[in-house]
């Protein structure tokens, strides 16, 4: 997630929907516990969120965004695929596409 994409795949850098969709989503799973991520951005085994928006998401949703912990982001974030059904679902629910 949050990698620039081209063609018929949405551009993550002008989206951010999956980072602002659910406070329960950016959890640490597997062996990765986010130890490289600053404490104030973490909470109870997941990324801290403000409402549904991950605290590490910078910028304006649907305009220009970036992940401030990109190199250390949780596995779930790494595996979320731009252009997937889930991607289009969260974009639709946040009003970023039809
Ligand atoms: S919802 Fe899709 S396009 Fe938007 S940031 Fe996430 S993966 Fe990228
Ligand atoms: S850690 Fe980064 S990629 Fe993962 S939800 Fe937060 S802002 Fe998005």
Write a short abstract of this structure.
The chain has 98 residues and is an alpha+beta fold.
Keywords, separated by commas or semicolons:
single chain; 98 residues; alpha+beta; two-stranded antiparallel sheet; 2 helices; 14% helix; 16% strand; binds iron/sulfur cluster
Care to describe what's here?
- InterPro entries: Puta_zinc/iron-chelating_dom.
- It holds the Pfam family CxxCxxCC.
- This is YkgJ family cysteine cluster protein.
- By secondary structure, the protein is an alpha+beta fold.
- It has a domain at 13-68 and 75-80 and 88-93.
- It is built from 2 helices and 6 strands; from the N terminus they run E-E-E-E-E-E-H-H.
- It has helices at 75-79, 85-93; strands at 42-43, 46-47, 49-50, 53-54, 57-60, 64-67.
- The strands form 3 sheets. It has a two-stranded antiparallel sheet. It has a two-stranded antiparallel ribbon with strand order 3-4.
- The longest helix has 9 residues, at 85-93.
- The radius of gyration is 13 Å and the shape is globular.
- The mean pLDDT is 91.
- The structure holds iron/sulfur cluster (2 copies).
- Residues 1-2, 10, 12, 15-18, 80, 82, 87, 90-91 line the site of one iron/sulfur cluster.
- Residues 1-2, 19, 26, 47, 54, 56-57, 67, 69, 73-74, 77 line the site of one iron/sulfur cluster (SF4).
Radius of gyration over alpha carbons?
13 Å
Quick one: how many beta strands? 6
Instruction: Spell out the helices and strands N to C.
Output: EEEEEEHH
**Overall geometry:** globular
Q: Separation of termini?
A: 20 Å
Summarize the main sheet: 2 strands, antiparallel
Q: Percentage of helical residues?
A: 10-25%
Adjacency order of strands in the biggest sheet = 1-2
Question: Which molecules are bound besides the chains?
Answer: iron/sulfur cluster
Strand content of the residues, in percent? 15-25%
Average pLDDT over all residues: 91
Number of helices: 2
Q: Which stretches of 5+ consecutive residues score pLDDT under 50?
A: none
Give the helix/strand class. Answer: alpha+beta
